[in-house]
Amino acid sequence: MALTVEQQREAMRRVAAWRVDPERPVACPMCGKNGLVIVDRSARPHAEWYALACPACGLVETLHIPLGAVTPTLD
Ligand SMILES: [Zn+2]
Question: 9 CA to middle of ligand 1, Å?
Answer without folding.
Answer: 15
